[in-house]
Amino acid sequence: MSDLREIINPATEEVIAEVPALSVKETEAAIARSAAAFASWRKVAPGQRAALLRAFAANVMSHKEELALLEVRNSGHTIGNARWEANNAADVINYYSGSVERLSGRQIPVAGGIDITFKEPVGVVGIIVPWNFPMPIASWGFAPALAAGCTVVLKPAEITPLTAMRIAELAHEAGIPEDVFSVLTGSGRIVGETMVADPRVKKIVFTGSTEVGIHIQTVAAAQIKPVTLELGGKSANVVFADADLDKAAATAPYSVFDNAGQDCCARSRLLVQESIYDSFMERFEEAVRSVRVEDPLLESAEMGPLISAGHRKTVESFVDESMVLFRGSCPSGPGYWYPPTVLEVSDPNHRVLKEEIFGPVVAVQTFSDEDEAIALANDSDYGLSGSIWTSNLGRGIRVSRGIETGNLSVNSHSSVRYWTPFGGYKRSGLGRELGPDATDAFCEIKNVFINTDI
Ligand code: TAP
Question: Domains in the chain and their CATH numbers?
Fold first, then answer.
């Protein structure tokens, strides 16, 4: 019998469930079942595998409201965001159901025969996800992996497992066998470590902190096990004087305070051109003060609590009150609330500008021209996301090309579109998820030469 772990609602601090914390032995047994299931799953005809994934997507979509409410209670996400997250997971599964029948190799002209490449599924894939966006991030890994013919063991964060567990049930109801897609609940130290170290797991997709990502890559390297790493960020929101300031200021809060700033793509550095600093900041302050931080079940809620008391302490540790320019408001408790907070930082090497805070805190800096904007945006170990606000399309493209980051938006604060590749430069990661080629990360390429001169 597994140990149980209590699951807490971060908006109320109430215990809402108890979930098994698997042991090493239980994890290894699940991996063994997944490896056995691979033998038959890889042989399922493409049309049938595609149909199973379509049925799975439809089942997630028809349970969207239930999943969204579960996420609000487990993660404190606003109900509006949680609906988007459930929807995104369903869309992603549906999108990759379309890849199954398009997954093909090549025929390459060679001397003396013909040469064919096959894309073959790697086997059991271990997917390890964090607590900040449990549904979307899991689906970005498991949907293309299942489509490629791999089986999946998914480890949600220990504190936010509820939607992953429900999504697995929905997969099984849709006809995907239990050992083809299983959720292993428990800690990273036990379940995650076991998955990475087990040679029957042929590929790891990890989303989480850069520190744990480095550790996972090191352990996997001993087995030449491929890894996809989606890690931290410290992205910039760059506002030029020629931007539509009303739009840039109105959306700037959502580019960093969305999901209470617990977003790897959060634009936690706001770079404003000197000549418009006062006029922009006046608009920005009004927008920040109007962010509705409240019970995440309310339809009007725009920001919920932080995930835990421990995480709130970490966020607080970054904020020196003398740096605070202005703040929004938040409930006093119960719940792990923290207000949207805007800082002005004079020391360019202050940790607030260097480290990922993962909370609703943004630091403002100014720049004089395009070159300085690019240099400041690049003054980071990370390179995941970012925005550029300008009415000059040429500048938008020039600055996009100059910033070392995997995903940029011009005149938008969006980061993830499942039709396009997503991932980081520098310490933000390795490899790409999403987009039309994501299934390739779950395939080996086999090349076969056939001698026609025999
Ligand atoms: P981590 O502490 O790194 O945890 C991420 C996952 O790894 C959790 O499931 C965790 O399990 C597990 N884990 C921890 N130690 C492990 C180990 N030694 N071996 C295997 N697995 C292990 O990150 P977090 O605090 O949950 O999430 C926040 C971080 O994720 C931030 O840095 C954020 O930027 C990053 N993130 C990146 C992205 C993308 S797409 N780039 C998206 C979202 C978040 P337990 O928590 O159960 O122990």
Answer: 3-231+428-451 (3.40.605.10), 236-417 (3.40.309.10)
